[in-house]
Design goal:
Number of helices of chain C: 8
Strand order of the largest sheet of chain B: 1-2
Oligomer: heterotrimer
Number of strands of chain B: 2
Largest interface: B-C, 50 and 54 residues
Chains: A mainly alpha (316), B mainly alpha (483), C mainly alpha (234)
Radius of gyration of chain C: 19 Å
Strand content of chain C: under 5%
Low-confidence stretches of chain C: 1-5
Low-confidence stretches of chain B: none
Structural class of chain C: mainly alpha
Helix content of chain B: over 70%
Largest sheet of chain B: 2 strands, antiparallel
Mean pLDDT of chain B: 84
Helix content of chain C: over 70%
Distance between the termini of chain C: 58 Å
Order of helices and strands of chain C: HHHHHHHH
Number of domains of chain B: 1
Radius of gyration of chain B: 21 Å
Shape of chain B: globular
Number of domains of chain C: 1
Chain lengths: 316, 483, 234
């Protein structure tokens, strides 16, 4: 049991420490694709360090929500990390605390408070972005639900660790039409929830066009650092769910030794790198959708997930 | 010999494209059509003598039902080709347009002749598709905005129906494979019909009914029909209404014997009554006299379908349906040729603009009146006889409600057609001065006369060989699968 | 008719799964045809649809070991993935504006939901048919083909422009074919090749018609052609 708590800690530390790295790699690769040199992949760490040493400016008109939210946004992805397979393919100590649906709700909690905080300060750009984030959020909800339902139906469980066992072994099950369709639907979901092109431009500075970035507009200093870190960790967690459960449930630690767990870290990062490459290609080749076309995009994601469910239910 | 029948129009397509002057192509088409009619009559006589014509066993063969369709195709193309000669001359088309018209016309008749002689359902589907595809550009031939609209609606709905029917034919093949195989032809299907899984055959029938029903013009899939059949040139309209919708109905009726009679007869009657009813009421408020006849086509398709669904001992209902097919085809073609003549003379399609035809253009007015009476079902024309035999079968089989409704609908349609035709033929003549009125081309008049012959004759007398062919055809249509 | 002897069981399983995957992607692309907004992308999706159909035909030919389907697959890819898009692009070349976007009677999310309902309907309708038995490897083709026919019909019904409407019709025919090769692999070859030829002729006719429509009303928005009807005021 002591081992398991230790491994949980290692999991937490992995998420904590490597999430900014993933952001840095994405930013760098996007710049390289555009024939520029781009910032160093460790730049997010330096940004966080800088921000932690700066003063914080807080609006007089904001309430306790504004001050409380950065901590919440920072902690919720860490809580979800405890529930999902990050490094190991056997359940760890807190694994049965909540299932995928619970994890989804915890992440949504962070997003909810971020939205509230954006409205809290009285800055007009905050609510604009917040309402758009909510629109994307509620359009993405059905997709989340259907994907989780289908996955749970296939694996007869809603605990991520058990679900991923299904696709570890026979590869023929991997190429089932329902599985491929689920991969596509979840990919579109990650693009939406992570604020990536074609839904939102993460490196844009134009406030009127921001969707996800607007939640951290008013923050500075430590609050800003926590919001940034929390956002990066949320993305990392989504990627973990996607890669370790659906796409490539291999390379995770099978034995219960510290060495195996530590060995899993570079393998997981390798998988993330492969996905990041695909993501960069998608981001560089598409353009941002007009606002009301996002409904069509998420509608297509919904249809894909329901098609996955149909093909699965009729056992084809 | 059977292979010659579709081959002849195909050869004519190539010949029509020869730049041999403006009059060569239409006249050559006419000659070829007459030759085609001779071949068709010869084939029908063979079939009447109980000798099934087989060119390629299982692929190209002719039985009773096919012989009847072939006769109709051949005769209608003769009258239409004859009318076309005058039509083309009256419109003063230039040589290239004349060639284009004749080439398309021959392609159309080629596809129409192909449908009855093929025995393999998938190939028949292709032939039906050809009839649609090759007539699209004929419907759009006038190149006006309304003609293009009609042609576009036509092609879109046709293709939709074709895709659905294709699926039906695939299912039919599967059903036959499940029943033990055999050649995929009409005869082969009839041979294994009792063993085919009912659910598959029913599904295939529904799909083919919906898909080809679009082409037949069953309500509610009929919306393209009044447009296409009114915007096309008159001889093409005659062919479209006279035989093309009937060809698609022919294919549907070929499938009817494969199903248990007790289960589908009711459905056939309902669908037929729906078409007949809706069309007869829609007839009353048309503004364009060609659309009038087009709605009458929809109504008659419904009547034929009801007749096929009446059952009857020894295929009496099927016999009545066949009679109705023949009389409807010849009469409707005659009506459209008459309408085309009216259009040539008055230049307008609206009913309200045409008055007193009997005074300004006696023969055409008389033809229109005769056509209206004939298609409405007045004695002594052939449609009256066939409808009467349908009523007789209906009463004999105890379908009183169906027969009563049919009588009502036919009466409504008769009233509607006569109302409009009456206004056009009698009444004070319009304001066209005598010297500016165009004259009806002689060939058009001859075509009208020729087309009128079976309309009148078949109402009074049925040639013996025709009766034989009809008897053979009715036995083809009788069901084989048990109830 | 004899059932063709299958290849070894493992290979069969793999090929069947691969066929199921191809069919699943076919369904997805059918949905994509409803959701797409640009005409050029619509044509590209149709090419993808035809390639998937050809792929399924080739896979099934391997499973059933019949060379019919190889010919069908090759003919299908040649006509529908190469020739027909070329013809359609030529029909569009005068129109720069309408080339860009597709307008529809329904907005896209609603159309997508309807397409979803139709897909479920297709699956439900196919269940009693599949219960009869028959070739098992192609069993996944039938529901997806049926669903594709319905979705293609929806696409054709809601579109206003000529070419995307026609692509919906062609997708219907592709789906009917997909279902057909799954359940009736031994259909006489001449029939299947002639079907491809027939579709080709149809496309030529339609492109001529579309050109004529464009000359008359300036765009190929055939949904605007509504003058032929009964009633007052024409």
């Amino acid at each position: 049991m002591g081992n398991r708590i230790l491994f949980n800690l290692v999991q937490l530390l992995t998420t904590l420490l490597f999430a900014p790295l993933v952001s840095g790699v994405i930013a760098r690769l996007k710049e390289i694709v555009q024939s520029k040199r781009g910032p160093s992949i460790f730049q997010p760490y330096r940004d966080l360090w800088k921000l932690f040493h700066k003063d914080e400016v807080v609006s007089e008109y904001s309430s306790w929500i504004f001050r409380f939210t950065p901590y919440l946004v920072f902690v919720t992805p860490l809580l979800v990390t405890l529930l999902i397979p990050v490094l190991t393919d056997y359940p760890l100590f807190f694994a049965f605390m909540g299932d995928m649906l619970g994890g989804g709700f915890v992440l949504a909690l962070g997003g909810f408070f971020a939205t509230l905080a954006a409205v809290d300060t009285g800055n007009p750009y905050g609510p604009v972005g917040a309402s758009r984030t909510r629109m994307v959020g509620f359009l993405a909800e059905p997709v989340f639900m259907i994907v989780f339902f289908t996955v749970s139906f296939v694996a007869n469980s809603t605990i991520p660790y058990i679900v991923q066992q299904r696709w570890i072994t026979p590869t023929a099950a991997f190429f089932e039409p329902s599985h491929i369709l689920l991969l596509l639907a979840f990919l579109m979901l990650i693009l939406a929830e992570g604020g990536r092109i074609p839904v939102d431009n993460p490196s844009g500075h134009f406030e009127l066009a921001m969707i996800d970035e607007s939640k951290s507009l008013e923050y500075s200093g430590r609050g800003f650092a926590l919001m940034k870190w929390g956002g990066a960790m949320k993305f990392f967690v989504l990627l973990c769910i996607y890669l370790n459960v659906l796409v490539a449930p291999w390379g995770l630690a099978h034995e219960q030794t510290l060495g195996a767990v530590l060995l899993a870290i570079p393998l997981v990062l390798l998988k993330m790198l492969a996905f990041v490459l695909v993501l960069v290609v998608i981001e560089s080749s598409l353009s941002k959708l007009r606002l009301f076309r996002i409904a069509e995009f998420l509608g297509a994601a919904f249809i894909t997930s329901v098609a996955a469910m149909i093909t699965r239910l009729f056992a084809m | 010999m059977l292979l010659l029948i579709p081959l002849l129009p195909l050869v004519m397509v190539l010949l029509s494209l020869l730049p041999l002057g403006r009059r060569f192509a239409p006249i050559a088409t006419l000659v070829a059509a007459i030759a085609e009619l001779a071949l068709a009559v010869a084939a029908a006589l063979e079939v009447a003598a109980e000798r099934n014509l087989v060119a390629i066993a299982g692929w190209v063969q002719l039985d009773g039902f096919g012989a009847i369709m072939l006769l109709l195709v051949a005769f209608l193309s003769v009258t239409a080709a004859l009318f076309s000669v005058g039509y083309v001359a009256a419109h003063h088309y230039d040589a290239a347009r004349v060639r284009s018209y004749c080439a398309h016309f021959n392609l159309f008749t080629f596809s129409l002749a192909l449908v009855p002689v093929l025995a393999e359902p998938a190939l028949v589907w292709i032939a039906i598709e050809f009839t649609s595809v090759f007539s699209v550009l004929l419907v759009a031939f006038d190149n006006t905005r309304t003609a293009l609209e009609a042609a576009w609606k036509y092609v879109a709905l046709m293709f939709m129906g074709a895709a659905i029917a294709l699926l039906g034919f695939f299912l039919l093949f599967w059903a036959q494979a499940q029943a033990g195989g055999g050649h995929y032809s009409w005869d082969g299907l009839r041979a294994v019909a009792p063993q085919m899984p009912t659910v598959l055959v029913m599904a295939a029938f529904v799909l083919v009914l919906v898909g080809l029903g679009v082409k037949v013009g069953f309500v509610p899939l009929h919306t393209w029909l009044p447009d296409a059949h009114s915007q096309a040139p008159a001889p093409v309209c005659a062919l479209l209404s006279g035989i093309k919708t009937t060809s698609s109905l022919y294919v549907i009726l070929r499938l009817v014997p494969l199903l248990p009679a007790a289960r589908i007869n009711g459905a056939l009657q309902v669908i037929g009554l729906l078409s007949a009813g809706v069309a007869s009421f829609l007839l009353l408020q048309v503004r364009d006299y060609k659309r009038l006849f087009a709605y009458s086509t929809v109504e008659h398709m419904g009547i034929i379908f009801v007749a096929a669904g009446l059952g009857g001992a020894g295929g009496a209902g099927a016999y009545a349906a066949l009679l109705q097919i023949i009389s409807h085809s010849v009469t409707k073609s005659f009506c459209f040729l008459a309408a085309g003549a009216v259009l040539l003379l008055t230049g307008t399609r609206e009913i309200k603009d045409v008055r007193g035809l009997i005074r300004t253009a006696g023969p055409v007015g008389a033809a229109l009146l005769v056509g209206g009476l004939a298609i409405g079902g007045a004695p002594p024309f052939s449609v009256f006889l066939s409808e009467f035999s349908i009523f007789r079968v209906g009463l004999a089989e105890g379908h009183y409600a169906v027969t009563a409704l049919l009588v009502v609908f036919i009466t409504v349609a008769f009233f509607g057609i006569l109302l409009h035709v009456n206004r056009m033929v009698f009444g004070a003549p319009g304001s066209l001065p005598a010297e500016r009125r165009p004259r009806l081309p002689a060939t058009a008049g001859a075509a009208l006369l020729l087309a009128a012959v079976p309309v009148v004759v078949l109402g009074l007398y049925q040639p013996v060989w025709l009766s034989h062919v009809l008897a053979v055809a009715a036995s083809n249509l009788a069901g084989v699968a048990g109830p | 008719m004899t059932v063709p002897t299958p290849t070894q069981p493992d290979a069969i399983l793999w090929l069947t799964n691969l066929n199921a995957l191809v069919c699943g992607l076919f369904l997805l692309v059918s949905f994509g045809l409803v959701a797409i907004r640009q005409t050029q992308a619509c044509v590209r999706l149709f090419i993808l649809l035809s390639v998937l159909l050809g792929g399924s035909a080739l896979l099934l030919s391997e499973i059933y070991t019949t060379w019919h389907l190889v010919v069908v697959g090759v003919v299908d890819i040649c006509t529908k993935a190469v020739i027909i898009p070329w013809l359609l692009r030529r029909a569009l070349h005068d129109e720069v504006y309408t080339r860009r976007e597709v307008t529809q009677v329904l907005n896209i999310p609603t159309a997508l939901l309807l397409a979803l309902g139709l897909a479920i309907l297709g699956y439900l309708l196919a269940q009693p048919l599949l219960a009869v038995g028959g070739p098992s490897a192609g069993a996944v083709n039938l529901p997806i083909g049926l669903a594709g026919v319905l979705i293609g019909g929806l696409t054709a019904a809601v579109r206003r422009e000529a070419v995307p409407l026609f692509l919906g019709l062609l997708a219907m025919e592709n789906s009917a074919f997909l279902a057909g090769i799954g359940v009736a692999p031994e259909m006489p070859l001449i029939a299947e090749v002639s079907i491809a030829v027939d579709v080709l002729i149809l496309v030529m006719v339609v492109s001529v018609l579309t050109r004529a429509v464009h000359e008359h009303i300036g765009t190929t928005e055939v949904g605007a052609l509504t003058t032929l009807r009964e009633g007052p005021g024409r």
